[in-house]
Amino acid sequence: MKNKTKENPNDIAITLLETEIAIYMRKETKLSPKSIKNYTQACRKIARDLQATFDTLLPTIKTVDLRTCSSLKLEKLFHEYFLIPEYRNLNEKGKGMYKAASKHWIRCRVYQERLQKSWDIGLEKEIEKFDKRISEL
User: Fold this and answer.
1) What is the tens place of the pLDDT at every residue in 35-86?
2) Which pLDDT score, from 0 to 100, does residue 120 have?
3) CA–CA separation, 4 vs 51, rounded Å?
4) What are phi and psi of 107, to 5 degrees?
5) What is the C-alpha to C-alpha distance for residues 10 and 40, in angstroms, rounded to an integer?
6) Which residue of 23, 31, 58, 93 could cross-link 35, Cys pair, CB 3.0 to 4.6 Å?
7) Nearest-CA neighbor of 80 among 104, 102, 60, 103?
8) Among candidate residues 122, 36, 105, 37, the one with its CA nearest the CA of residue 71
9) C-alpha span between 28 and 48 (Å, rounded)
10) What span, in angstroms and rounded, lies between the C-alpha atoms of 47 and 17?
11) Which helix or strand (DSSP H or E) is residue 121 part of?
12) What is the reported pTM?
C-alpha cells in the first residue's frame, strides 16, 4: 500500500507561483534557462520565508495570497523583507540574486495585472456590443 502524504496547500501555491514566474521570464525576458531556474528557486525561498514570517517578523503586513496580491503590495512586502537582517545578509551573500528575483516577481505581477486589465477592457467592449445587439432586437 502506498504511503499517502497530505500535500500542504502553501506548497502547492508556491509551486504555482514559481511556475507563473518561470513562464513569465521565459516569454518576456532574454534570461538563460539557468538564470531562470536560479531566480525561480530564489522566489520559492522568499515565498517560504514570507509565509513563515508574516506573523512574527512582518507584523505590519497582514497575510496575503502571494499569487494574487498587487504589484504595489509586493513592493512593500519585499521592502519589509529585505529590512530584516537575516534576509538582507542572505541577499548580500547571494550577490544580489534575491533582490533581483524579487524584481522579476514584481515585473511578472505587473505583466499579469496589465493582461487582466486588457482582458477586462476587451470583455467590457464585448458586453457593450452584446447590449447594443440585444437592444436592437
Assistant:
1) 999 999 999 999 988 887 766 665 655 556 788 888 998 998 899 899 999 9
2) 77
3) 25
4) -60, -40
5) 16
6) 31
7) 60
8) 105
9) 25
10) 9
11) helix 97-135
12) 0.77
Q: Which three cell numbers stand for residue 113?
A: 495585472
Cell of 132: 447594443
| Distance, C-alpha 64 to centroid of its chain | 11
Q: What nine digits make up the cell of 124? A: 467590457
Letter for the amino acid at 60?
A: T
Q: Smallest Cα–Cα separation from 63: which of 133, 6, 10, 116?
A: 10
Angle of helix 85-93 relative to helix 71-83, nearest 10 degrees, comes to 90
The residues, any chain, with a CB within 8 Å of residue 80's CB and separated by 6 or more, are 58, 60, 61
Q: Which residues contact 110 (CB under 8 A, 6 or more apart)?
A: 71
4-44 pLDDT, tens digit each: 555 566 678 888 889 999 999 999 999 999 999 999 999 99
